[in-house]
Specification:
The structure holds 2 protein chains of 2 kinds. Chain A is an alpha/beta fold. Chain A is built from 12 helices and 8 strands. Chain A is flat. Chain B has one domain: 3-Layer(aba) Sandwich (Rossmann fold), CATH 3.40.50.2300. The chains are: A alpha/beta, B alpha/beta.
Chain lengths: 281, 129
């Protein structure tokens, strides 16, 4: 019985990164829902211990697909048990624990609802900063039941995280608005008293907004942020000049990877393929 | 509105957009599935086959929309209809649209519609489908 889904490739990559002095966040994906008997929880704890011993992460993020919408296969009571067991194992091995990642939109909904009840003016200001669709979702009565459900679900999650005493609150952020990012995360940080991290933070294509988001992340003093480039394959263009050769930035990146990993970087961008082929003759 | 029997795959990482799309489809389209990124979409197509319509965001974690399109091209898979969602400034979008056509000349013959989430609400999606 496999309670944890981690492809072998990920384990070996984590081991590799760790050996080269990088700190690893290991995302623990929980498998198909089964009855959580004492015996199954023991097996889960054993599997978790093996993963931690093999990869020696700094943080483990226990994911139960809380990011995948309103319906999740595991109940809150079951997720609580999985997290509590995870906390016991992680603490015993000197590793920090976080959740799989709350959706940034859930936090926006939660914050908006809080303001709606407590400070009408601030609520209106927040709504004014949102895009047309988020505005519609939060203000049109048609979606009020969904808004309530999202708010209730997040409230339950936060109670679980508090009860377990996870070390960091993990947020997945995908909304390219620095002001909203600051207001929402600052609110959650103050409300829960927890340190916030993000194992999935989308950097938008727009350079100015991207820069402002990074400044906001620094202002919020987030302990750990793992960035994704929203349109990664197009940003690959920065690595290749007009002649199809690697730019200075690409060479620096290659040196970095050589230094950390002691192996040639594998470049998968559509744009860098030409430069890579030219380089290999 | 008439009920539609089309199979739709929607690749959308943002929760509120997924909820808005689901609300518009309610009672009209029932055979649809949401996935959160291109990687899961590829896995889904391998298992369930090509849907009638693919709706994809461009900016996503794990695998973005452009890499997803790249994989379709390499596998010689032509979507019957592809709706590309984006929330970029007009300047960035115009640049990306030009780049897309240049990188993937194959898509010139595809049935593609671009949908700007910053200025269009999702009730317009049904008109496109």
């Amino acid at each position: 019985m496999k309670l944890i889904n981690i492809p072998f490739q990920y384990l070996s990559e984590s081991q590799f990164a760790r050996k080269r002095g990088l700190e690893v966040v290991e995302v623990i994906e929980i498998g198909k829902r089964i009855a959580l008997s004492d015996e199954n929880l023991e097996k889960y704890a054993w599997q978790l211990t093996q993963v931690i011993k093999q990869t020696q992460p700094t943080i483990i993020a226990i994911e139960r697909k809380e990011t995948s919408g309103l319906t999740t296969p595991w109940t809150n009571a079951e997720y609580l048990k999985l997290l509590e067991t995870g906390k016991k194992v992680a603490t015993g091995l000197g590793v920090k624990l976080t959740n799989g990642g709350i959706d940034g939109d859930e936090l926006i909904v939660f914050f908006a609802n809080f303001l709606k009840l407590s400070d009408r003016e601030k609520y209106q200001n927040l709504i004014a900063k949102l895009d047309i669709n988020r505005k519609l979702f939060l203000t049109n009565i048609k979606y009020s039941i969904k808004v309530k459900l999202i708010e209730q679900k997040l409230h339950e999650f936060l109670k679980i995280y508090k009860k377990v005493g996870i070390d960091f609150l993990n947020v997945n952020w995908n909304y390219a608005n620095p002001e909203v990012l600051f207001e929402v995360l600052n609110f959650i940080k103050n409300l829960t008293g927890m340190e916030i991290i993000s194992t999935e933070f989308i950097k938008p294509y727009d350079k100015d907004i991207s820069k402002k988001l990074l400044e906001t992340v620094n202002r919020l003093k987030l302990k750990c942020v793992i960035y994704y480039f929203g349109i990664e394959s197009l940003l690959g263009e920065e690595l290749v000049n007009k002649l199809g050769k690697f730019t200075k930035k690409a060479e620096q990146l290659k040196s970095f990877i050589w230094w950390h990993y002691n192996k040639k970087p594998r470049v998968s961008s559509i744009f860098t393929e030409k430069a890579e082929n030219d380089e290999n003759g | 509105m008439m009920k539609m029997a089309k199979k739709i795959l929607i690749i959308e990482p943002e929760l509120i957009y997924r909820e808005l799309i689901a609300a518009e489809f309610s009672g009209i389209i029932s055979d649809y599935i949401f996935v959160l990124n291109g990687k899961v979409a590829v896995k889904h197509i391998k298992q369930a086959g090509l849907p009638d319509i693919i709706i994809t965001e461009l900016a996503m974690p794990i695998m973005d929309g452009i890499n997803f399109i790249n994989i379709l091209i390499r596998a010689k898979v032509i979507p019957r209809q592809l709706i590309i969602l984006y929330d970029l400034t007009p300047l960035h979008f115009s640049y990306i649209k030009t780049r897309l056509k240049k990188i993937f000349p194959e898509i010139a013959s595809w049935n593609i519609v671009f949908f700007n989430k910053q200025i269009q609400t999702f009730n317009n999606l049904l008109k496109i489908i």
